[in-house]
Amino acid sequence: MPAPKMRIIAFDISASPGIAVIEVARNRPKLIAATSVKTDAKSPDSQRYAYVEAFATTVIHEYGPFDAIVREHFTKGGSKRSTQMVFGSWAAIDMALGKYGYNEIAYEPTPTTVKKVIGGHGKAEKDEVEAGVRRIMKLPDDYEFVSNDASDAAAIGLTYLIENKIIEGAD
């Protein structure tokens, strides 16, 4: 008997985050949404975080409910400022999730794990990871993601699904 349908939301968190919504039915992933938002570095942080929260709230509202929440693991960026921006966006997204009762993160893969599982090796470049997402989801070769953040979010979600044996990896 096939596994029941499930829906996940995956986040690639940064000052300009990506979000992917993936539905699985009969052990096959279907990309429901892959989007991102770009914040303006000239804006005050408070406006950037409010925009990230509003963006996440909109996606959560439009595409929920979700069976699992997934985000890439993050400990620190290349600089104090980049770390601050990621954690600010992280908190903004947590606030959006909390509005809908989502308080538990199911999985937080490391960037290396995502690259290995989706891109084929731990040092895979963005284009290799994006190609892996297309292959696993059976998207056309010319399918264009709105940004690297959107394709990265899809890769994070697929990593969760593969690592937890909900779907199989690339053929």
Q: TL;DR?
A:
This protein has about 170 residues and is an alpha+beta fold. It contains 5 helices and 4 strands, in the order βββαβαααα.
Tell the overall outline.
Answer: globular
- CATH architecture title: 2-Layer Sandwich
How is the biggest beta sheet arranged? 4 strands, mixed
Query: Could you give the distance between the termini?
Result: 22 Å
The proportion of residues in beta strands is 15-25%
What is the helix/strand order? EEEHEHHHH
Quaternary state reads: single chain
How many runs of DSSP E, i.e. beta strands?
4
Strand order of the largest sheet: 3-2-1-4
* Structural class category: alpha+beta
State the helix count.
5
Helix percentage range: 40-55%
Q: How confident is the prediction overall: mean pLDDT?
A: 94
* Cα gyration radius (Å): 15 Å
Poorly predicted spans: none
CATH superfamily (homologous) name: Ribonuclease H-like superfamily/Ribonuclease H
Write down the domain tally.
Answer: 1
Under CATH, the topology can be stated as Nucleotidyltransferase, domain 5
CATH class: Alpha Beta
